[in-house]
From TrEMBL:
EC number(s) recorded for this UniProt protein: 2.4.1.1
Family that this chain belongs to: Belongs to the glycogen phosphorylase family.
A GO BP entry: glycogen catabolic process
Pfam families with a match to the protein in the record: Phosphorylase
The protein, known as: Alpha-1,4 glucan phosphorylase
Molecular function GO terms recorded: glycogen phosphorylase activity; pyridoxal phosphate binding
Record bears the keyword Methyltransferase: no
Transmembrane segments: none
InterPro entries (UniProt xref): Glycg_phsphrylas, Glyco_trans_35, Pyridoxal_P_attach_site
Length: 846
């Protein structure tokens, strides 16, 4: 049908002969880059630096992506398939240029072209700032899922916020304290975004909500503050496909330049204040990970983003000319954790107040559109909003939430009486009612976002097998008993092999393609193909090449550290890496205490025996929420002492690399021999860096937690170094700590010795570390004491295994070979099939 459509305007041949395709040869590429230097940047060869050349190259690549992007969007519009929308408050994209060149298969042409213009592509890639609009795993997962959606030809858009400042830049003071600086990532202009000034929506805050007719449930929400949401589009190119999806990020702006009423009344400051507060909404990403603060601005961010996204989704749906009851046949909305849960009452508001649907009908639509992913069972991370704050900022939504919850017998809307339905199923169980209520009693009352997300969604999933089970047996247990277990599922997280193997480890990627004799475009999109590498593990020559690549990746990391920090790293050592947000449950403390233990043991050896020890370099990186500053300080000061100790420094050294980012991960991960994923069992929902290390042939030291378990299932337990208590034991141990505490000196003498050395001042003023040391001596909620012996034994086994280098390399190969399951392509197809009911819509294939 598309071929016979009438051309919308002008002379079709003039249009069509002038429409460009993708530039695939070097001549076209240099022409386009020079053209951008000359026009977009208004510069010349005489005054062009690396930054300018990067920008011109990026704009040229962007032009190519736009060709595909336009074609994809037109194709989706014509085909009118069901679409999915991924609502995430965080998208941790990292850099774009290299990834785009690889996905478009234009890297070698650009390399040549950039060379001809007198620059090096490698240098230009380093000019790009990370787009760091996320805290950690949750935000990076969203970015991997966008890459996979496009690569799998799925009609998926992301929706998020265009923060002016991403996650803070981390600096480390000489004393070892974390300092935070703003991340002005947009200062150099961002060539990867397209401002869509014409795509904008008004979003209301505060004001009054007046119920119109009690029987029907409608209301009129007026007054308050109106803020404008303006769209910025980021193109998401798929790998080896023309499909190019969209990530739409909203920026907040005052509706008018400033508040005219105040301005007229001569209150210039008041006028500017209101314009400031509109812009403030998208000014900064909240750097909190696993903690909620109940801040008004955060709630405004959440509503601003969900309201703009829903308005946009509904407008696109309405263009199809379908009736609103078909909405769930054309739209699936994935809620990335509870952050976008306000979308549920917001869609109710639109359907009832604006579309004039009755309550039950609206609720039926809503509960068929939304899907909810939970990412943590830690109680402190479960979002709750004070009712008075919600009433103030979103009076209409608070009414709707109360209506969903309503128990009142006088209420006439049967299906919305959630608690009444619970009461009917479990008569007289008042505690259950209280647990399941959307409102937690107390001063103040609070809205429980996980409960709202759960009852308002069609299906709910966790992010690894163990985690999904824990979701169903702990935080959402009552809901499983009420709705039945089929509403709950698991989608184990995945990572994109494009960025996390091909891009970050090009030599390994090449070796894999040449060994398997298949083009990378094939195995990168069917990662189970790596399985065939297992048979080459027996091949000595292959093992040598494999090991040589690891060695060069270590040297690449060492070079990076040398040039950025000035340290000389021993590349003959085993590289042991723990990189992730600092958090008590992730137990960086266990790692650093283990390092101190190793240091004390080394000191006790004779020089002759020391020479037999396998040298090791330990790397840490990660940003900390304010409560965990002390761990960084300890790591930095332990590093200061042991790196300077002439007796031991050849055998053990330690680095804390500041300002962990996606780009730094891309250098660290391919260089690791082992990586540590050592959360207390049952606390890390999945983890995704564990997958990245293993895909790059690094072995895993870990607890029986999150996705570690499934990685071991795939690669074989003989290739993983597991330790520590299992999830069922954790609760008992905590109970014991509480009622029958055993002092550390008795429970674990080697650990007590380590703690005493810290308190005694071996790493500077011991008093500084008292609070940290006391979390272990008293209470020890995360069971450092209980797992310490087992941890040290696991590390000893690592040392022993590393001595047999041939066997080690075999383990490394077999690990990579068996990581097929952890491609985010598998994960996203699982969402498409088991949750969204979405089909691939490939461009140019019909
Ligand atoms: O989400 C990742 C998992 O792999 C990790 O195990 C999990 O810890 C992480 C509040 C969070 N859970 N919860 C958050 C982030 C920001 C925030 O404001 C919570 N992050 C995770 C991907 O599934």
């Amino acid at each position: 049908a598309s071929g016979k459509e009438k051309w919308p305007r002008g002379d079709e041949t003039v249009w069509k002969t002038n429409m460009r395709g993708v530039d695939a040869d070097v001549g076209d590429i240099t022409k386009s880059v020079v053209n951008h230097v000359q026009t977009s940047l208004a510069r010349q060869a005489y005054n062009l630096d690396n930054l300018g050349a990067y920008q011109a190259a990026a704009l040229s690549v962007r032009d190519n992506m736009l060709v595909n992007w336009n074609e994809t969007q037109l194709h989706y519009t014509r085909k009118a398939p069901k679409r999915a929308y991924y609502l995430s408050l965080e998208f941790l994209m990292g850099r774009t240029l290299d990834n785009a060149l690889l996905n478009l298969d234009l890297k070698s042409q650009y390399k040549d072209g950039i060379n001809q213009l007198g620059f090096s592509l490698e240098d230009l890639l380093e000019e790009e700032r990370d787009a760091a609009l996320g805290n950690g795993g949750l935000g990076r997962l969203a970015a991997c899922y966008l890459d996979s959606s496009a690569s799998q030809d799925l009609p998926v858009w992301g929706y998020g916020l265009r923060y002016k400042y991403g996650i803070f830049q981390q600096l480390i003071s000489p004393e070892g304290n974390q300092l935070e600086a703003p991340d002005p990532w947009l200062d150099n202009q961002n060539p990867w975004e397209l401002p869509r000034i014409d795509v904008n929506y008004e979003v209301r805050f505060y004001g009054q909500s007046e119920r119109l007719s009690e029987g029907h449930g409608r209301a009129l929400w007026t007054g308050g503050q109106e803020v404008l949401a303006v769209a910025y589009d980021v193109m998401i190119p798929g790998c080896n496909t023309r499909n190019t999806n969209n990530l739409r990020l909203w920026e907040s702006k005052p509706k008018r330049g400033f508040d005219l009423n105040s301005f007229n009344a001569g209150n210039y400051e008041g006028a500017v204040e209101s314009s400031n507060s509109a812009a403030a909404i998208t000014s900064v990403l909240y750097p909190n990970d696993h903690t909620t603060f109940g801040k008004e601005l955060r709630l405004k961010q959440q509503y601003f983003w969900t309201a703009a996204s829903l308005a946009d989704i509904i407008r696109r749906f309405k263009n199809l000319g379908k009736s609103i009851n078909e909405f769930p046949d054309y739209v699936a909305i994935q809620l990335n954790d509870t952050h976008p849960t306000l979308a549920i009452p917001e869609l109710m508001r639109i359907l009832i107040d604006e579309e004039d649907l009755d309550w039950n009908f609206a609720w039926q639509i809503v509960t068929n559109v939304f899907f909810f992913t939970n990412h943590t069972v830690l109680p402190e991370a479960l979002e709750k909003w004070p009712v008075p704050l919600m009433e103030h900022i979103l009076p209409r939504h608070m009414q709707i939430i109360y209506d969903i919850k309503a128990v009142s017998n006088t209420n006439t809307f049967a299906a919305r009486i959630f608690l009444q339905a619970v009461e009917k199923k479990f008569p007289g169980d008042r505690e259950r009612l209280a647990r399941m209520s959307l409102i937690e009693e107390g001063f103040p009352k609070q809205v429980r976002m996980a409960n709202l997300a759960c009852i308002g969604s069609r299906r709910i999933n966790g992010v690894a097998e163990l985690h999904s089970k824990l979701v169903q047996t702990t935080i959402l247990k009552d809901f499983v008993e009420f709705f039945g277990v089929s509403k709950f599922g698991n989608v184990t997280n995945g990572i994109t092999p494009r960025r996390w193997l091909d891009q970050c480890n090009p030599e390994l990627s090449k070796l894999i393609s040449s060994t398997l004799k298949i083009d990378k475009s094939v195995w990168l999109k069917d990662l189970y193909k790596l399985k065939d590498l297992v048979k080459y593990a027996a091949d000595k020559g292959f093992r040598a090449e494999w090991a040589a690549i690891k060695q060069r990746n270590k040297e690449r990391l060492a070079h990076h550290i040398e040039t950025t920090l000035g340290f000389t790293v021993n590349t003959n050592a085993m590289f042991d890496v723990q990189i992730k947000r600092l958090h008590e449950y992730k137990r960086q403390t266990l790692n650093i205490l283990g390092v101190i233990h190793r240091y004390l043991e080394l000191k006790a050896l004779t020089p002759a025996l020391r020479k037999k020890v396998n040298p090791k370099v330990v790397f840490f990186a990660g940003k900390a929420a304010p409560a965990f500053f002390k761990t960084i300080r300890l790591i930095v000061n332990v590093a200061r002492v042991i790196n300077a100790d002439p007796e031991t420094k050849d055998y053990l050294s330690l680095y804390f690399l500041p300002d962990y980012s996606v780009s730094l991960a891309e250098v660290l991960i391919p260089a690791s021999d082992i990586s540590q994923h050592i959360s207390t069992a049952g606390t890390e929902a999945s983890g995704t860096s564990n997958m990245k290390f293993c895909l790059n042939g690094g072995l895993l030291v870990g607890t029986v937690d999150g996705a570690n378990i499934e990685i071991a299932e795939e690669v074989g337990e003989e290739n993983v170094f597991f330790f520590g208590h299992l999830t069922p034991a954790v609760e008992d141990l905590r109970y014991q700590h509480m009622y029958h505490p055993v002092p550390v000196d008795e429970a674990c003498p080697p650990l007590a010795n380590v703690l005493n050395q810290i308190s005694g001042g071996l790493f500077g003023d011991g008093g500084v570390y008292e609070p940290l040391v006391n979390t272990i001596r008293q209470g020890d909620y995360y069971l450092v004491t209980d797992d310490f012996d087992s941890y040290i034994r696991a590390l000893a086994m690592v040392d022993e295994a590393y001595l047999d280098r041939d066997e080690w390399v075999k383990k490394s190969i077999c690990t990579t070979a068996n990581m097929g399951k952890f491609s985010s392509d598998r994960a996203i197809m699982d969402y498409a099939q088991e949750y969204w009911n979405l089909e691939p819509i490939p461009v140019g294939k019909d």
